Amino acid sequence: MAVPTIARDVRPRSVSAAKAKSKASLNHDVLCYIVSYLEQRELLNVMETCHAFHSAALKPLVQRISLWPMGTRALQSFCEFLLADPAGRAVHVREIRLFLNSVSNLRSVLPTIIRALALCTNAEALTMSVTDQNLQLYPDLFTAVTSLRKLKTVSLTVYGGPRAAGLIAAMPSTLTSLEFSFDEDWSDAARLFEHQSRTLETLHVRGAHFVDRPTAQFEALRELSLRFGEASYDVALLKWLFPNVTHLHLEEESFLTWEDADVREDAAQAHRKRNLEAQEKASWTSLKSVKGELRSIWAAAFGCTVDSLATRVESCHAKRLADVLHDMQPRELDLEVPMYGWEAGEFHALLHAAKDLTSLRLRLELDQDSGVKPDDIMLHTVKLLGHLPLTTLDLSLVIAEDHYDYDEGHPTAESLSDLNIESYVRQLAENIKTLRKASLRVDVNSNSEWNIRRSASGKSLLERAMWENRLGESYVEEEETDDEYEDC
After folding, report:
1. What 3-state class would DSSP assign to 470?
2. pLDDT the model gives residue 119
3. What is the residue-wise DSSP string for 153-206?
4. Residue 371 pLDDT > 90, yes or no?
5. How many other C-beta atoms can be found within 10 angstroms of the C-beta atom of residue 480?
6. Which residues pair with 292 in a beta bridge?
7. Are 145 and 113 in contact (CB under 8 A)?
8. Are residues 198 and 175 in contact, defined by beta-carbon separation less than 8 angstroms?
9. Is the overall model pTM greater than 0.90, yes or no?
10. For residues 307-342, b (16+ Cβ closer than 10 Å) or e, as one string?
11. Is the CB of residue 370 less than 8 Å from the CB of residue 395?
12. Could you tell me which InterPro entries the record lists for this protein (predicted)?
């Protein structure tokens, strides 16, 4: 193949200049890429070294700005830095984090913050805490925030009443993600962001209620997270508002907040009965994943099967979990289980009732009242899980803090340090014939994690990941199982 040559009418000097220009551009791109991984303080140090680094680091320095935690002087200086060259600095800001309730001497610095905020017109993400008093004393703050018309993601913590709520209502109609939290219950929340019904894909709500149907449904919404307030939720209304939600998270605070246990139980029964009756009219067929507090999930009675369910269950709520598993028939289950009060046979039967269960992530919490001795741990969990039709298992044994104190007959860090994890994993694989992938961790023996993988031919491979330190650096030891385990 002929080697290309430079034409005679092209001056070598021009070629050299072109190459130099290309090389300089490449070097600048590389510098920009490198500094994009640095933190703000590191960027400031790098920028002082030379003009090239100063130019390359300027954009990543201001792309993600956090105006907290900063001292008042540092906050003032940074805002003045943005104001000194709006076209070259503020225009590059893409993400803003501003917690006004955490800024000391706010009155002296807020006017400068407002001026800088108004220049960040290309910002796409805003995380902010604000009070009614902030907005009342500084009307320009409302104007500056609502002028950010390119926002896609907004997270607001609201302290106060109508002015702060009005900030949500004034957000641009292009939002795809909205998270807001009220310090007091706020009714009729849907009307605050009704104008975003066509674009909103993710919604996290705390301390707000949905009372009436607005004029539009949120058909684009796929992920919904709720923290129920004192008012009960009409699940039929939620189904109408968010007909296409696939991932639902009911945060751990129950919507039943009364202290009296009998009243709580009566209310939960009433809500479940009402929601079961509503199932006949409409079911939430779009749901794929549900996680959160078991009481709320049980009372909601969604009336649909799901791919994934995640919750925490105590022995006194076994019947409640059985109802949920029967209703939802998940294929993937993520459970946190304090073992106090459980009988192995009862728990095994409960899991077996989930007929379609193929994947299980199980966190077993052992304390002095769990009745499980160190020598019985392997046998106990094999009884819990044996013969379930699982293909994937992720098992964690967690020893409660009181187990770290010596108490004869109960698991301690010392008594579990000699636990033969390898033998344990092999027993699980032997008893669960359908397993294709499994992992096991014991928190007091947490410098390692055992994993087992089984090929389509039935041969098993055991892996041990070892952590050298808390940073998570690891290496893997692999060994094929003995012949007696190849077909297990």
Report:
1. coil
2. 92
3. EEEEEEESSHHHHHHHHTS-TT-SEEEEEEEEEES-GGGGGGGGTTT--EEEEE
4. no
5. 11
6. 250
7. no
8. no
9. no
10. bbbbbbbbeebbebbbbbbebbbbbbbbbbbbbbeb
11. no
12. F-box-like_dom_sf (IPR036047), F-box_dom (IPR001810), LRR_dom_sf (IPR032675)
Say if residues 369 and 339 touch (Cβ distance below 8 Å): no
Residue pair 388/354 in contact (Cβ under 8 Å)? The answer is: no
For residue 471, give both structure tokens.
């940073």
Phi and psi at residue 172, to the nearest 5°? -65, 155
pLDDT 10s digits, 22-70: 444 546 666 676 766 666 667 667 777 777 777 776 777 777 777 655 6
Nearest-angstrom CA–CA distance, 125 and 155: 8
Token representation of residue 187: 């009714």
Report the candidate in 29, 30, 31 with the shortest Cα–Cα distance to residue 54: 31
Contacts of 365 (CB under 8 A, 6+ apart): 336, 337, 338, 339, 398, 400
pLDDT tens by residue, 248-294: 998 765 444 445 566 667 777 888 888 888 776 667 889 999 999 89
Report the distance separating Cα 213 and Cα 215, nearest Å: 7
Token pair listed for 76: 């003032």
What token pair was written down for 2? 């002929």
Q: What's 10's DSSP letter?
A: S
